[in-house]
């Protein structure tokens, strides 16, 4: 019934005009909006040492985050996925902190405790990650400490976009990233029972116009080869939201970027299996960030992998 309603809208646009078109756009924005999941517990309730911080982002919006001091090994900035929040990635942040890494988690706009905005998008997740990096650089004693980015799903695509535009990131950990927004949108259209032509094609072009970016430019397939630091791609073999073939396409597109691909049991959120992979993740950060402090750090990391990529 819903698919029939959507399909009738663009047909009616031809005869009725702008009123139905506006209704179609509004319905589309509502359907694509990220759900806001509240943060339910404090750091103290989780038994974690840290503080709640406020981060200035674009358009005068404020982000709410958690700063977990860990030591001088480096700092990991964590970007959650669509419809998630900082609390959902705390189980991954805690062992990072225990291993001596500072961790900065934050809620993107329209998520968790952060301010609302007109819409969410992967480029806006990237803007919020940039805001977190600006906050970090202004914090006393943080200017000379290496920084890694870790993101999940849309957050993973966002940190790859950020890293492709900077030279001061020491490592990137991508969890369950998609290869191209076009593929994500086509899967969404299929779930709604909407045909790609002509309706789906129009939807993709409309979303590009709203977010202000061409999908090809921001696609991880095209940003990963522009990243100048080591990248770890982690993906669940049982992921039905973003298939593992996306991770394999990403790995194949890496170009000169030193990249490892690790496929592991698990679905999209990886929550039941990522704990077992923490030793490898921590080893990756040690090799990529700690060794990158020296002049031969990147070369040493590549040599330790045996090649520019290691598929697990």
Can you put this structure into words, describing what you see?
With about 300 residues, the protein is α/β, with parallel strands linked by helices. The chain has a domain of about 180 residues: Alpha/Beta hydrolase fold, catalytic domain (Rossmann fold, 3-Layer(aba) Sandwich). An eight-stranded mixed sheet has the order 1-2-4-3-5-6-7-8, sandwiched between helices. The protein is globular and about 55 Å long. The N and C termini lie far apart (about 45 Å).
Which secondary structure elements does this structure contain, and how are they paired or packed?
Elements: H1 2-16, H2 18-32, H3 43-46, E1 51-56, E2 62-68, E3 75-79, H4 90-98, E4 102-106, H5 122-138, E5 147-152, H6 154-164, E6 171-175, H7 181-192, H8 196-211, H9 215-218, H10 220-223, E7 231-236, H11 244-252, E8 259-264, H12 278-290, H13 297-305
Parallel strand pairs: 3-4, 3-5, 5-6, 6-7, 7-8
Antiparallel strand pairs: 1-2, 2-4
Helix pairs in contact: 1-2, 5-6, 12-13
